[in-house]
Amino acid sequence: MIRKESEDVLNMLLVKLFNDILKIEAAAIKQGECSDLSVTENHIIEAIGKNREMTMTEVAKDLEITVGTLTTAINRLIKKEYVERRRIEEDRRVVLIKLTDKGEKAFDSHAQFHTDMIKSIIQELPETEETVLITALKRMTNFFEEKYNLLG
Question: At CB < 8 A and 24+ separation, what contacts does 113-122 make?
Answer without folding.
Answer: 113/25, 113/28, 113/29, 113/32, 117/21, 117/24
